[in-house]
Amino acid sequence: MSFSYSKKTFIASLFLICTMLAGTVQASSATHVLGVDTVAGNSTLLKAVNFPPETQIVFVITTPDGTQIRQMQRTDTAGTANATLDGLHTTKSGKYVLSAETSAGMSRSLPATFSVLAAELSGRDSTFEADRTVVSANGSETVNLTARLVDRYGNPLEARAVKIFSSRESDIFEPAVKLSDFDGVAEFSYRPSAPGLVTLMALDTTSDQLILSRVSLSVLNDRVTLANAGGDYPSKAHAATFGPLAGFEIESIPDTVSRNENVSFTVKAIDEDDQVVEDYTGTIRFSVEGENSSAVTLPDNYKFLATDLGVHTFSLGLSFAENGTYKLVVTDLTDKFKTGEKTVIVGSTAGTQPSGTTITENPLITMPAAGTYSQAEQTIGGTAKAGTTITIFDNDAEIGSVPVGPTGRFSYQTSPLSDGKHVIYVVSQDMISLEIIGTSETVEINIDTEPPKIEELRIEPNTEIVPGSVINVSVFTEKNLSQAALIFNYDIIELNAKVDDDSVYVGSLQAPAEPGEYKVSVLLVDELQNEVTYQDAATVNVSAEGGTVQTDLDTGKNGQESEDLNQPEQGQVVMGAPSQVGGLIAYGLDGRVTLVWDAATDDTMVKFYRVYFGDSLQSMTGMVDTKDASTTWYVPNLENGKEYFFAVTAVDDQGNESPNKSEIVSGIPFVLEIRNALSEEPVVPLEQPDLHSAAYSGPYPVRTTDSGPGVLLLLGGSIAAALTLRRRR
To answer: Do 376 and 319 belong together in one domain?
Structure first.
């Protein structure tokens, strides 16, 4: 189900419904309350009638999880009060209980209920899992698959038709399609019939959306050998039997390593007999023991895939900034006693050089390593002479500077870098004289955050399409995709790169037996897992007389770029970046600052906002992207009593960012205490509501629990004064 109403239209409709419902109860002298059903994350209207005129009343809302919200409102001369319950309080689906009472407790309504329905499916928040990742193809072993469908708030989606697809056409699932239960769960069983590597995917056929998480399985040939299992396996046969995980082996590190050399190495999960544990899919963490451990650049935590078969190589993921002897340790995150270690000797004078060794005059970049990255923000780090200043250059343009600490190390977080090649180098300068001391070698990286684009979609034949016709599809795009597939008639058809041109991916469709109009969508995923689905890229008209195929990329002609699913219309061209964000206000609360701003405008669509922050005007290096185009966000984990500075930009669906940040505002987190002015109640801190979902619409209602200390009322007014500063240029 999709909703196209604007927020103003939606609120107006709710108000009209409340007014009509209220008219049916005016004849009664009893107090009544009404709440209008809504969708998770959307606001709703509350109404109370037949209360004393011009009197303060309190709406009491109990959410499905027992949380109680109390919102004050004043009745008009007719004894009626209207209130808006903000979407930040309706993220939980289910029944909400509503009542109202005068602040003095003299008049109280009977309770009423309203419902909050789950929002649309979130392919990112939904899950698809298997109870095992390695299985035998002996015809008796079964894999249990579980798909759980939820919206962006984690609410389960009931009665949704879920279908499972395999990268192999011969695989069969039981059942073929299943409805999700009350918890949004649909369970399937899968019994593979042939060895090889298998990728399984789950599709919500109700909304035609794929769950983004996938299941990768290694299907073994009756657990005897992998020699004929297919896929990119080593040539030698693997042992069929292995025990539980006992630890790890670290291999392929040279006997001696040079300082700042990027080293590749391999980690094996092994049992107590040193056999590789082929079905290990845990997560490992790297660490280094010893006084010089801070001089090491380590790989990030890694979760083993089923296709790793218990062995994974980390390419150029390890380097040492100082000579010495190091103990490299790998540990299973769920069991700290499952470890492995390796002693590494760095430099010819290893073990004799203390950690405070003098750094050479020329600075050295140790991170990032040369390569391609999908993260637009990069950390530039390395070593230089202590007490100097490092200036960072990107493609010969200065992008920032940082001081070098007493240990001789520096680190700088970039703003989002544009897609393409970036040649990074740093220059060290004396802090006082600003004399240039040295220049580093360059490091070349490529940023690739954009999903693949279709250059041409070729479908042959495109006429005389009768039931059962075979249709050949060629997708012209970039090379080395990790996946290319078609979604057609609830089936997923994997595409393969052509032997003579690996930028063309080909496959075939079979027209359904029933005449009709069928849509073809194209799914592309590159090596960095940037993914895009070209929804309804073509239409296949099947008829007994012979139908046609129409490609619908952009203007409906082959060879033109398609818009992705997040864009509102096909064929639109980005003419410019979003406008500057205005009206930014900051509200300080306990440990966080809430920001509210006016919506930016764009010639296509604002997709999300980017919040910059820091504890001074000169160091606003913190950055976070909001989840959507809502105009409210909060920054958590801040120090109470300390002033922080904030600015916001808008980012559209083409990745264009506002050229100018909003005006800079400041906010101070603090604990606000409110005493109930109507009765003697203890003083308690105001709790902070979750503001990630909906725009600010006035003073926030206070959320309490049934076991909370008495009645909390927000007496109106702003939570804290916002200090607005004009941005220094």
So the answer is: no
pLDDT of residue 218: 77
Q: Is 694 helix (H, G, I), strand (E, B) or coil?
A: coil
DSSP state for residue 429 in the 8-state scheme: E
Residue 644 C-beta-side C-alpha neighbours within 13 Å: 31
Q: Is residue 353 part of a domain?
A: no
For 17, the enclosing helix (H) or strand (E) is helix 7-23
CA separation for the pair 305, 433 (Å, rounded): 53
650 shares a domain with 536:
no
Same domain, 14 and 31: yes
Residue 720 lies inside a defined structural domain of this protein = yes
Residues 316/263, Cβ–Cβ less than 8 Å: yes
Cβ–Cβ < 8 Å for 123, 208: no
- Provide the number of structural domains found in the chain: 6
> Do 188 and 276 lie in a common domain?
no
If residue 18 lies in a helix (H) or strand (E), which one and from where to where?
helix 7-23
- For 470-526, the pLDDT digits (tens) are 899 999 998 888 888 888 887 788 898 888 888 899 988 888 988 999 998 888 888
Whether 26 is in a domain gets the answer yes
Q: What amino acid is encoded at 493 in this protein?
A: I
- E strands within 599-720? 606-614, 622-625, 632-635, 644-652, 664-667, 673-674, 684-685, 702-704
Contact indicator for 98, 61 with CB cutoff of 8 Å: yes
The CA-based angle 652-618-441, given to 5 degrees, is 80
Is 295 in the same domain as 181? Answer: no
> Is residue 229, in this structure, part of any structural domain at all?
no
Q: Are 322 and 314 in contact (CB under 8 A)?
A: no
Q: Residue 295 corresponds to which tokens in the numbers above?
A: 């001089």
Residue of 471, 550, 547, 552 lying closest to 515 (CA atoms): 547
Return all residues near 624 (Cβ < 8 A) that are at least 6 apart: 610, 611, 613, 633, 635
pTM listed for this prediction? 0.36
Write phi, then psi, for 617 (nearest 5 degrees). -65, -25
DSSP code string of 554-612: TTT-TTSPPP-TTSSSTT----SPPPPP---EEEEETTEEEEE-PPP--SS-EEEEEEE
For 289, the domain range is: 247-346
Tell which residue, 240, 302, 242, has the closest CA to residue 276: 242
Residue 220: partners with Cβ closer than 8 Å, 6 or more residues away:
134, 135, 136, 137, 195, 226, 229, 240, 278
Instruction: Name the token pair of 226.
Output: 């992998």
**Residue pLDDT, tens place only, 354-371:** 333 344 568 888 888 887
- Alpha-carbon distance of 63 to 283, in angstroms, equals 37
Query: At which residue do the structure tokens 């750094």 appear?
Result: 359
Residues 516, 439 within the same domain: no
At 502, which CATH number? 2.60.40.10
Report, in this order, helix, strand and coil percent for the chain, each rounded to 5: 5, 45, 55
Do residues 96 and 103 lie in contact, with contact meaning Cβ atoms separated by under 8 Å? no
Same domain as 107, residue 25? yes
Last residue of a domain, one of 117, 138, 163: 117
Distances (CA, A) of 285 to 9, 315, 317, 339: 51, 16, 13, 10
